[in-house]
Amino acid sequence: MKPIQVGLLGIGTVGSGVFNVLQRNQEEIRRRAGRGIEIACVADLDTARARSIVGERTRVVADAREVIANPDIDVVVELIGGCGIARELVLEAIAAGKHVVTANKALLAVHGTEIFRAATERGVMVAYEAAVAGGIPIIKALREGLTANRIQWVAGIINGTTNFILSEMRDKGLDFDVVLKEAQALGYAEADPTFDIEGVDAAHKATIISAIAFGIPVQFDKAYVEGITRLAAADIRYAEQLGYRIKLLGITRRTPRGVELRVHPSLVPARRLIANVEGAMNAVLVQGDAVGATLYYGKGAGAEPTASAVIADLVDLTRLHGADAAHRVPPLGFQCASLSEAGGELPVLPMSEVVTSYYLRIRVADEAGVLARITGILAEAGISIDAVLQREAEEVGGEGSTQTDLIILTHQTREGDMDAALAQIQGLPTVLAPITRIRKEELS
Amino acid sequence: MKPIQVGLLGIGTVGSGVFNVLQRNQEEIRRRAGRGIEIACVADLDTARARSIVGERTRVVADAREVIANPDIDVVVELIGGCGIARELVLEAIAAGKHVVTANKALLAVHGTEIFRAATERGVMVAYEAAVAGGIPIIKALREGLTANRIQWVAGIINGTTNFILSEMRDKGLDFDVVLKEAQALGYAEADPTFDIEGVDAAHKATIISAIAFGIPVQFDKAYVEGITRLAAADIRYAEQLGYRIKLLGITRRTPRGVELRVHPSLVPARRLIANVEGAMNAVLVQGDAVGATLYYGKGAGAEPTASAVIADLVDLTRLHGADAAHRVPPLGFQCASLSEAGGELPVLPMSEVVTSYYLRIRVADEAGVLARITGILAEAGISIDAVLQREAEEVGGEGSTQTDLIILTHQTREGDMDAALAQIQGLPTVLAPITRIRKEELS
Fold it and tell me: Mind listing the GO biological process terms from this record (chains A, B) (predicted)?
């Protein structure tokens, strides 16, 4: 049988990875897919660079629409990124009856509903394993491997840049700014690292995970997003002393009132496997009611790990090309008809409704009664305390005025209640600096 | 559409898990599968117990063949176990045109080739996610998630009983026999634990993994199998001092001369994630050429984790029921035609051809020159030494005769060369007890 014909839109790092792995492993892949997979055409504005990657035997064009219009192309792989031209091209490819593979998490987190609906109506598949956690087949695990389960929650280290930075901060006791520069020098962080360090990239991925886990529409606009830029080396050290590591987690949880969807730094017990995921690695922990906890670990980025996911999608599409829609896995793993319905029943909760526990670091004047006042406010708000760590006082400024860090771990409480209590505590004259509040997840 | 009709052969622990999870999550499962999944009939010799599990609305019979002969049944789930009647029934179900789901690793490791061939000829599917690592979707990851990769090796903790025993031996410093009794009391080990502690169960699973990873036939008879019964608490302690944990690993590796397929206790660097998998948990580490290392972790046994895998298979079968064979994933992930061919090119290597590194514990008389003689023999065999740990001598028996444990870590060498060197060392008059030899895997 003729190889399945693939058109590549954009051939940067990931695109060249896809091209190289398909070439190198073509025999193995053909034995698996039952049919060859061939990149027939590549579109990239930089045609010279594209040509240098693919050689003479593959067609190179500057205009992506030429690929989409090509009647020989079965599958379009979108590797342009972003929500602008990529969205247009994906929708055009679908309209032209092409299956689509994309690694574009931003596009799916924001425009997924529109794209999946268009694909379903046109009878084509949209596959996106590479959009979440790079080479780890977590989309497949959630959509197909854990279908028996009512998923209870998913928590993942799904951004390698921030995990690298946090690992380095902990290993070397350095502050965020210093490590960010090192990460940029090493290529682990981009020149403009905003999307990574502010948690946006992780939130795109968490949004997609949330939709698959619970059968709800993608709702990036409802995600709570907090990055790692305000983390101090001191918090990582204190957390360590209390038996925790700090990780940037993407968390989504089913509760009776709705779904939590949030990205923020989290204290995780140091003995958990996921707390020991270091450097730029990714890991996703899934809690299902039948299977219990399962964890998936691997490289979340890079040319070939991402290519691994793109090509796995191509093999799936190759097998299912021409099959009736009933034989395919629907885009989010749930039948589309049942999706919108459930979205109504399972709203994404505002952050004030989220229930979790907390690490608080409060800079206080070293005076009698400070701890009593603070714990009194927490008690009044119904927030119970798990542990207190009081540091030795340091002399600051002279004249015998001393300050200290008060570290408090709380039990579970509503974020809204915590906000109110913190506002009160912040107002105390003995509280000398903005309070640091980091959420704590036991993941048990 | 009418729910897919499932017949259950055997309703013990896993069978009742399947029944209960299907009931509890039926709505969620229907939304995923696009169609209900219904256990229409259960066969079990103990019909009274079966009836007490499934209630009045499900048909219960004593004769499995009645289920197979039932024209309304689409899928037969075999949960009887073993290679006797289970093999007959699976082949009969296939002959009757039923899809088969099985959790029976022994059956597939020994008779997989016959069963997969029969299924392919008859045009039905055989699914077996539950046969390896319980609820962890590792079969799906290997067959579908990592299809882009040339798999280089897989190493797994794929037997919960032995991992529980090893974890306890390490935690509490106890010897094997003591912990085995505790594990039996807690239900982590069976009354007759032979299959687990001798490594046979892990070897069944490693055999299946090997076939999927490399596209070779299942060849249990070629597997090297060594259990944990001879491990001493001292070895676990020494390994710890050298920065290693001891795990029972199922390992399969592609080499230029063939495939390694082996189960044995292994020293693993303590900093590796897989070394920190404790208790009855399972984990499988897969090294692919594109994706690098990925790890899959979760519960490897138990009613509902295993049911999770069985039901995931049922959802897959429900989606693909009626689809052309080209749209399905072949039993071992590779097209059947390409399987036998490759089996010839990639023979399973005898253990003497395996290349790995070693931990040696040698009980020696505390005399001058002992270390020199032993290291001399290793050097002559071309085996280089990575580290030596010499314990303080203990007085044994009186009259000033002292003994000591000499611990040697070697670099990589052929097992055959190590066998020959060890035979020589064992023959030295200063070597006072059988040498302990444990393989060491860096997994990097």
Answer: methionine biosynthetic process; threonine biosynthetic process
CATH number of the domain bearing residue B109: 3.40.50.720
Residues B159 and B90 in one domain: no
Mutation to test the A interface, candidates B20, B25, B142, B149, most A Cβ within 10 Å: B149
Mean pLDDT of chain A: 95
**Interchain pair B137, A290: CB under 8 A:** no
B251 and B328 in a single domain? The answer is no
The verdict on whether residue B299 carries a ligand-binding annotation is: no
Rounded distance between C-alpha atoms, residue B187 and residue B309, angstroms: 22
What is the pLDDT at residue A120?
96
The pLDDT tens digits for B352-384 are: 999 999 999 999 999 889 999 999 999 999 999
Query: What are the chain B neighbours of A29 within 8 Å (beta carbons)?
Result: 147-148
* Total tally of structural domains belonging to chain A: 3
* Residues contacting residue A255 through CB under 8 Å, at least 6 positions apart: A349, A355
Classify B328 as helix, strand or coil: coil
Query: Is B302 part of any known ligand binding site?
Result: no
Interchain CB distance below 8 Å, B307 and A148: yes
Mean pLDDT of A173-187: 94
Residue B377 vs residues A67, B24, B374, B380, B437: alpha-carbon distances, Å:
66, 64, 5, 5, 16
- When CB atoms are compared, the residue of B29, B327, B342 closest to A323 is B327
CA distance B115 to chain A (A): 19
Q: Are residues A89 and A180 in the same domain?
A: no
Q: Is B220 exposed, middle or buried (0-12, 13-18, 19+ CB in 10 A)?
A: buried
B122 and B235 fall within a common domain: no
Number of other CB atoms surrounding residue B294 within 10 Å: 29
Nearest beta carbon to residue B292 from set A273, A294, A305 = A305
Distance CA(B276)–CA(B271), nearest Å, equals: 8
Of A339 and A424, the structure prediction assigns the larger pLDDT to: A424
B385: domain CATH number? 3.30.70.260
Nearest alpha-carbon partner for A320 in B26, B329, B352: B329
User: Which is catalytic among the residues A98, A172, A181, A205?
Assistant: A205
Q: Are residues B288 and B193 in the same domain?
A: yes
Residues of A in contact with B293 (CB under 8 A): 298-299
Shortest Cα–Cα distance, B279 to chain A (Å): 13
Check whether B208 has a pLDDT greater than 90: yes
When pLDDT is cut at 50, 70 and 90, the band that residue B398 belongs to is: low
CB within 8 Å of A60: residues ≥ 6 apart = A41, A42, A43, A44, A47, A50, A51, A54
CA atoms within 13 A on the CB side of A219: 24
The response to whether A142 counts as a known ligand-binding position is no
Q: Is B205 a catalytic residue?
A: yes
Closest CA relative to residue A17, chosen from A303, A300, A309:
A303
The residue segments making up the domain with residue B414 are: 352-440
Strand, coil or helix: B330 = coil
CATH of the domain at B181: 3.30.360.10
Question: Is the CB of A140 less than 8 angstroms away from the CB of B135?
Answer: no
pLDDT tens digits, residue range A286-309? 999 999 999 999 999 999 999 999
Q: Are residues B357 and B336 in the same domain?
A: no
> Which residue in chain A is spatially nearest to B304 when comparing CA positions?
A290
ipTM over 0.90: yes
Contact check, Cβ <8 Å, B141/A145:
yes
In sequence order, what are the residues at sequence separation of 6 or more whose Cβ sits closer than 8 angstroms to the Cβ of residue B48? none
Average per-residue pLDDT for chain B: 95
